[in-house]
Design goal:
Alpha-Beta Plaits, 16 strands, globular, binds flavin-adenine dinucleotide, binds D-malate, binds zinc ion, transit peptide, D-2-hydroxyglutarate dehydrogenase, mitochondrial
Length: 482
């Protein structure tokens, strides 16, 4: 069927032939998947929204499952020579349509590249293949008294290569910083099949341009990440989580200020959700509110090295926050099961939304004071047209997740949301993608956050590294940059 309005035209890549399949089967015996039933789940994104986005989306017939860098190199070299398009795929939890093919691109999955290559228990530097699942890495490290510097709700499925390719933020960024700081080295297969070995595991290395940075957040468009070296923090000896309620967003911000001042170096997360999120958690996941009903909820995590010292600091903060009426109710958790239960109130909002209907997702960076105003303005702007308009996110990082649902896909609602949401964001000099990337869905809105000169330079970099454009075509860069 012809592509729907707004969908990209299929570019003139070759189509996979029997000879191509014979080549892949020789390199990857038993790991060249063509059974449509087995390929299907790799054609469908986590949100199951791409087929709604436009009709032939996700029609790949080939799924390749390499185990070694050398296999990836051989595949990519061959695809480049044959002009075959390739979609690198990790855990397929991406939220912007970057992880699944648009047409018939070959899916190159890193799922079998899941070996830990080394761990230095003195420096805390972990080196592993790109397909290691984030949660498995966390479990491996915890046994050795370390943790991963990032954590996100999709940890059970997402892979470190996918995390790096999207420059995932998540729940610990406030404390440990972004992957641009914690990733020390990468191994990447370039579009011509060359293996770029920047897998250094040094804290400091100013020998020329820091090339690995280009691949962090490049969403599979510049190379296939095959291995990652990452700096891991020590496992904190004491972790506390508090779940608090606030009457207004202004009070929530004041609580954040107070919290930064009083908790200082032990603060490891400051997250929020609004009462609409709580309603969805109650309704769709049957998760009861652990405190009394409030317009806003905060999840604060502390991680430190001295349980007594941390408890005292937290106690003083809570006392002050209550005394100055910044928070109206709250509960504290120190044991692991309760910590998990409180975290799930924040982590499972994404899942609750999928049960509410068709979800329009926005992942916006804004100055802290403006974060919730966008939710209020959007509610007013949409009137009764949406089913739910909810706000949650990484308030400590200035990152709002604005999500809007409708019972079914609703083009009139979408026309009311966009470009309103992007214009609003641009007017505050915010970012239209804080942490999820641009993928297929957001790429044409890049100009709301980047000047055309910067986008042009991105196009030059893409043309230099991938002259035939075989790596994840139709993603990240807008239509007018080929
Ligand atoms: P995929 O979804 O498979 O791929 C994502 C992109 O990276 C695609 O463009 C793909 O082509 C590319 N890619 C994947 N692997 C490679 C590779 N080895 N080499 C080159 N390119 C590659 N994101 C956040 O930032 N913060 C969050 O808090 C967060 N929470 C989430 C919670 C839930 C419940 C879900 C479903 C998603 C969440 N996400 C979050 C989004 C998503 O999990 C992240 O973007 C994650 O980093 C993607 O990893 P993945 O392995 O699933 O990659
Ligand atoms: C989150 O912070 O929960 C994730 O980024 C997922 C989402 O935006 O729903
Ligand atoms: Zn997030």
């Amino acid at each position: 069927s012809p592509p729907a309005a707004g969908a990209p035209e299929r570019l003139p890549f070759s189509r996979v032939t029997e000879e191509d399949l014979a080549f892949f089967r020789k390199i990857l015996p038993g790991r060249t998947i063509t059974d449509p039933d087995l390929v299907e789940s790799s054609n469908v994104d986590w949100l199951k929204s791409m087929k709604d986005f436009f009709s032939p989306a996700g029609s790949s017939e080939v799924l390749l499952r390499p185990q070694k860098t050398e296999e990836v190199s051989q595949i990519i070299r061959y695809c480049n020579s044959r002009n075959l398009a390739v979609n690198p795929q990790g855990g397929n939890t991406g939220l912007v349509g970057g992880s699944v093919p648009v047409y018939d691109e070959i899916i190159l999955s890193t799922s079998l590249m899941n070996n830990i290559l080394s761990f230095d228990s003195i420096s805390g530097i972990l080196t592993c293949q790109a397909g290691c699942v984030l949660e498995n890495l966390s479990l491996y490290l915890e046994e050795r008294d370390y943790i991963m510097p990032l954590d996100l709700g999709a940890k059970g499925s997402c892979q470190i290569g996918g995390n790096v390719a999207t420059n995932a933020g998540g729940l610990r960024l406030l404390r440990y910083g972004s992957l641009h700081g914690t990733v020390l080295g990468l191994e990447v297969v370039l579009a011509d099949g060359q293996v770029l070995d920047c897998l250094a595991s040094l804290r400091k290395d100013n020998t020329g341009y820091d090339l690995k940075q280009l691949f962090i957040g490049s969403e599979g468009t510049l190379g296939v990440i095959t291995a990652v070296s990452i700096l891991c923090p020590r496992k904190p000896k004491s972790v506390n989580v508090v779940f608090l309620g606030c009457e207004t967003y202004e009070q929530l911000l004041k609580a954040f200020q107070l919290c930064r001042g009083m908790l200082g170096e032990i603060l490891s997360a400051f997250e929020f959700l609004d009462s609409e999120c709580m309603r969805l958690l109650n309704t769709h996941l049957k998760l009861p509110n652990p405190i009394s009903d409030c317009p806003f909820y905060i999840v604060i995590e502390t991680s430190g090295s001295d349980p007594k010292h941390d408890a005292e600091k937290l106690h003083n903060f809570l006392e002050e926050a209550m005394a100055s009426s910044l928070v109206s109710d709250g509960t504290v958790a120190t044991e692991e099961s309760k910590i998990k239960a409180l975290w799930s109130m924040r982590e499972r909002v994404t899942e609750a939304l999928t049960h509410d209907g068709f979800t329009y997702k926005y992942d916006i960076s804004l100055p802290l004071e403006q974060i919730y105003q966008l939710v209020i303005d959007m509610r007013q702007h949409l009137g009764g047209r949406a089913k739910s308009v909810v706000g949650y996110g990484h308030v400590g990082d200035g990152n709002l997740h604005l999500n809007i649902t409708s019972s079914t896909k609703d083009p009139a609602l979408l026309a009311a949301i966009e470009p309103f949401v992007y214009e609003w964001t641009a007017s505050c000099r915010g970012s239209i993608s804080a942490e999820h990337g641009l993928g297929l869905k957001k790429r044409n809105y890049i100009y709301y956050s980047k000047p055309s000169q910067a986008v042009g330079l991105m196009g030059n970099i893409k043309a230099m590294l991938d002259p035939k454009g075989i790596l994840n075509p139709y993603k990240t860069l807008p239509d007018d940059v080929k």
